[in-house]
Amino acid sequence: MNSNLSEIDKDRVIEMAWEDRTPFEAIHQQFGLPEKEVIKLMRNTLKPSSFKLWRKRVNSGVSQKHLKKRSPEIDRFKSTLQRQITGNKISKR
Fold it and tell me: Quick one: where's region Disordered (predicted)?
């Protein structure tokens, strides 16, 4: 796993991974973590039951985690917690 991430960045990756409308490609572009590394981070951070629920949701088709599987009418989602992007990092409150 990419140990170069700060705790704040790890928290942000987890937050983005948990959000159904944020694709793995966005996480990779912003933090340099491929999908497999995001899954490892989630597995090592979440409780086992939470991780299983997340994986089930991601694989069920409900999630839009993969851009290729995503419906074209879905625009880029911007969370209300997301204020601005500076230096390719999303500022937190």
Answer: 64-93
